[in-house]
Amino acid sequence: MQTYPTGYAESHRIAEQIFREILPRHGMAVREEQIALCHEVLDTLYNKEISLCEAGVGIGKTLAYLVACILWQMHRPSQLKMPVAISTSSVALQDAILNEYLPDLSAVLLAEGIITAPITAVVRKGKERFVCDARLAERQAKAISKGSRQKGSLRMAENVLDLDRIPGLSRYDRCRICVPQSCPRDCFLRLDCRYQQYLRDSMKPDIQICNHNYLLANASHRLEERPLLLRQYQALVVDEAHKLPDAARQMYTETLSAQDMDDLCSLLQQAHFKGLSKRLRTVFLTLSISCAPSFAMPKRKISIPFSLTPFRQAAIADSINLLQYIGSQPDMPYYLQYRLAEAESLLRLFLLDVPTRILYLEFSADGQLTFCAASNRVPQLLRSALWNTREPTILTSGTLTAAGDFDHTEQLLGLAAYAPLRHFRAESPFNYRKKCLLYIPARRAAAVPENQYLADQIVRLTVACHGHALVLFTSYRQMRNVYDALGGRLTFPVFQAGRGQNRSIQQFKQSGNGVLFAAGSCWEGIDFPGDMVSLLIIAKLPFPIPDPVSNYERQQYPNLRDYINAEVIPEMQKKLRQGFGRAIRTEQDSCVVAILDERAGIGGKYHDAALAALPSCPTTEKIEDVQQFIREQKRP
Questions:
Q1: Is residue 137's pLDDT more than 90?
Q2: pLDDT value at 146 more than 60
Q3: Pairing of the two strands 253-257 and 591-595
Q4: Across-strand partners of 363?
Q5: What sections of 167-211 are H helices per DSSP?
Q6: Can you state the percent helix, strand and coil of the chain, rounding each to 5?
Q7: Which of 24, 154, 277, 354 has the most CB atoms around it within 10 Å of its CB?
Q8: How far is CA 512 from CA 589, 628, 630, 635, in A?
Q9: What is the pTM of this model?
Q10: How far apart (Å, rounded) are the C-alpha atoms in residues 439 and 600?
Q11: Range scoring the smallest mean pLDDT among 331-335, 435-439, 444-448, 506-510
Q12: How many Cα neighbours within 13 Å face the side chain of 108?
């Protein structure tokens, strides 16, 4: 006879009650997929396993796993209770969990007698995101000539600890008043420090929320037996889990930028090592010159594989020798010794043929150099950092599969050989067959330039749909070029969302029938519900951009075809589904989705791969069908 852990059956029973009776009384619809996901999370927690949970748009996955975690914690023996950690990629989701989901859920469960005390939670993030009271006082004393807005931001920092909550704070001031990497032990404000109080308070809540980078940093601290950043947790939820491999690549890539070099020289000068600072600047300048590319630099960020020439070898050796010499000075402060040793260690990798590193040079749009040493063992490092701890873990996202298969995600996350590994997949409850039309036009005439073709299609489609359009690009450059090719032919308000330009997005939302050109982060994580977006245009299939890391991965396959099938197509499919998810956000929404990339068209090289990534819905290549669909769906 099978036995279940304490509280197992009761947790499942209460979950049914919450989703089928309690939440509907508070205006929420019953969603079978959401209930199934909650049961899956409960099973994973009680069995102490790892589960990959793909939840389509509209399921309500956040509420599903929050209810499961609360019920599981509620039935844990008091002596075993520890926090649940929730890791996300976006600040928006962290804020929503802390300020919307949990307060609302806590109020409902308290009113219904399910819980007896409010649910407590805290967002954990790096110390550089908080105000240092001592540095703030010092900065305010020097900011006599600053404008009223900047002074106002500094005054606000006296009462607001979180730098992300202070509007109008310049990047310069932010760097000058944030908590430093190491606090001086003799700080005169130590006993009254708001940041230290925040650290003490953050140890208490039931739920610890952080981003993926902070989670990985905490794991590194645990492996290195350093003090943990997060309170010891008993279960982990990784939301937006499709972004965890990117965060891991960033975490496990060591860098030394031109700005780092300049900062190091400035710190030496401030510590009264002016002669050594000057010598180091000269050596770093020679190093930068040795790494300058032999071709004209484009006005965008680029990465190139590193090769060791005699000039570079000599310049790196000189830099290492001088860094060692400066660090050995008897009166060198500890924090500078640490920074010098970091730079020396990174540069030493570029002299040695280290088999676990992918070495490359990155140049910013203005030509600033960064040395990059990426690990080629990210999946293994993830497994060691997160999965070998054997805490129950739920990894969830709307895009964990490629064409319904979890294999690619398992490989990226270091879970390919992990056992037992659970899988859960729930399609979106939205009726795409009725509410969505996929438009893939016939192939363009060879004589028509690509950007002109895209502009012509955008004009035809936006006229047919009366505006209300989101146009997604894979390149900011192409976005601008197509915008220029429109030549003012659109009669609707047109907005371009450049990097970090949230104002354009807000203007589009308020326009009523505007057209938004966007790229980058607009492929995911932004809601355009209702008739705001009745037309989603995907200009190009979102294939990953080649870089030195992907070039290394390519070399691990016997031929290009195998590499494309195993790595490139699955990445494209997941990104395409993320973009497609901007189309329909509620049960009432309807939308035309247009894919203008010829490779996705009938007979195109990636036609089958593109269709396999998307929900089943009617497809057409006729603009008349688009017009008819809009008339039927949008009529009063």
A1: no
A2: no
A3: unpaired
A4: 302, 369
A5: 171-177, 194-201
A6: 50, 15, 35
A7: 154
A8: 15, 21, 16, 16
A9: 0.90
A10: 11
A11: 444-448
A12: 20
* Residue among 282, 297, 296 at smallest CA distance from 364: 297
The contacts of residue 41 (CB under 8 Å, 6+ apart) are: 51, 53, 64, 65, 68, 69, 237, 394
| pLDDT tens per residue, range 174-186 | 888 889 877 777 7
Average pLDDT over residues 284-298: 87
Helical H segments across 48-165, by residue range? 61-74, 91-96, 102-111, 133-142, 148-156
Q: What angle do CA 109, 112, 113 make, to 5 degrees?
A: 85
Angle at 113 between CA 86 and CA 63, to 5 degrees: 30
- Residue 149, both tokens: 């807005």
Q: Which residue has the tokens 């005439």?
A: 445
**Closest of 282, 278, 284, 236 to residue 259, by C-alpha:** 284
- Percentage of the chain beyond pLDDT 90 is 67
**Amino acid found at 260:** D
DSSP 525: S
pLDDT tens for residues 415-437? Answer: 998 989 999 999 999 999 999 99
CA distance 606 to 543: 11
Read off the pLDDT of each residue in 354-372 and give the average, rounded to a whole number: 92
Query: Distance between CA atoms of 219 and 222, rounded to whole angstroms?
Result: 5
**pLDDT at 516 exceeding the cut of 70:** yes
Residue with structure tokens 């998810």?
581
Residue 240 sits at the vertex; the CA angle it makes with 234 and 246, to the nearest 5 degrees, is 100
Indicate the residue type of 411.
Answer: Q
CB contact at 8 A, 245 and 412? yes
| Phi, psi angle pair for 427, to nearest 5° | -70, 155
End-to-end CA distance of the chain: 60
pLDDT, one tens digit per residue, over 14-55 is 999 999 999 999 989 999 999 999 999 999 999 999 999 999
Under DSSP, the state recorded for 473 is: -
Laid out side by side, the sheet with 515-518 consists of: 494-497, 515-518, 469-472, 535-538, 591-595, 436-439, 619-620
- The number of helices, as runs of H, and strands, as runs of E, in the chain is 27, 18
Long-range own/partner contacts, residues 260-265 (CB < 8 A, 24 or more apart): 260/343, 261/288, 261/343, 264/339, 264/340, 264/343
**What type of residue is 49?**
E
CA dist., res. 539 & res. 485, Å (int): 14
DSSP-assigned beta bridge partners for residue 211: 88
Helix, strand, or coil here: 131?
A: strand
CB 537 within 8 A of CB 596: yes
Buried b (16+ CB within 10 A) or exposed e, 600-633: bbeebebbebbbebbbebeebeebebbbebbeeb
The number of angstroms, rounded, from the C-alpha of 91 to the middle of its chain's C-alpha atoms is 9
The two three-digit tokens of residue 409, written as one number: 């995600």
Task: Please list, in sequence order, all residues whose beta carbon lies within 8 angstroms of the beta carbon of residue 11, skipping any fewer than 6 positions away.
Answer: 42, 46, 68, 71, 72, 74, 75
CA 564 to chain centre: 24
Beta bridge partners of 469: 515, 535
Structure tokens at 375: 């690990």
pLDDT digits (tens, 9 = 90+) for 252-263: 999 999 999 998
**Residue 62 CB coordination number (10 Å):** 22
CA distance 623 to 629: 10
- 380-405 mean pLDDT: 94
